[in-house]
Structure formats: structure tokens, C-alpha cells
Write a structure and sequence with these properties.
Layout: E1 19-26, E2 32-39, E3 43-47, H1 55-63, H2 65-81, H3 91-103
Antiparallel strand pairs: 1-2, 2-3
Length: about 110
């Protein structure tokens, strides 16, 4: 099977990383809460629910998305260069499917 995933950073355009997250109260004594994932200290990528137990864990995962996508693309290229092939159910197939999902390509 031949892979058609682009690794030049232009596939599935998204706001460039790094992304960060923060949550708190505005002003420090309330009453407004914020819980945002952002880039460049000003571009809000998304807001998250800081009121649920897994809210901050979700924010960390979302904020790591650009780095995870870049690492997955590098791993795919490296493994293919080492002679690995894409087969249903193997790690290379899972990497390719995850990249396509993240970039909006059809699996």
C-alpha cells in the first residue's frame, strides 16, 4: 500500500504550535472563569471545561496536538525509510490513519 501523507507541514492546515493552556478566574476574586487553549499568547484555539475532573487532562492533550502530529509524521517517514510497510492493524497503518484523521484526509 502506498502512503500519500504530506509531511511538509502544509497538509491539514492548523494554527502553528506550540499551543498552551491555562485556566483561572478573572479578576482574581471572580466571578468569571476562563479555560483556554491558545497559541502565541493571544490566539484562542479552543476553550475547555475546567469544571470536570478530566478537563485539564483534555486541555493538555489538545495543546500537545501540533507536536504529536509532527512527531507522528516524522515517525511514519522514518519507519517507511527503514523498509516497514503499511498493513491493516500494524503500527505504521495506525500512524497513517491517525495522521489522516488529524489532517482531515480520508483514511
Amino acid at each position: 500500500m502506498t502512503s500519500s501523507i504530506r509531511t511538509d507541514g502544509n497538509a491539514g492546515a492548523h494554527t502553528p504550535g506550540p499551543w498552551e493552556w491555562d485556566a483561572g478566574i478573572i479578576p482574581p476574586d471572580g466571578p468569571e472563569r476562563y479555560a483556554d487553549i491558545y497559541a502565541d499568547d493571544e490566539i484562542i484555539i479552543a476553550s475547555f471545561n475546567d469544571q470536570i475532573p478530566e478537563g485539564r487532562a483534555n486541555a493538555r492533550l489538545i495543546a500537545a496536538a501540533p507536536d504529536l502530529l509532527k512527531a507522528a509524521k516524522r515517525a511514519l517517514v522514518t519507519l517507511k525509510a527503514q523498509g516497514e510497510s503499511i498493513r491493516p492493524g500494524n503500527v505504521l497503518g495506525a500512524l497513517e490513519a491517525a495522521i489522516k484523521s488529524a489532517t482531515g484526509e480520508r483514511p
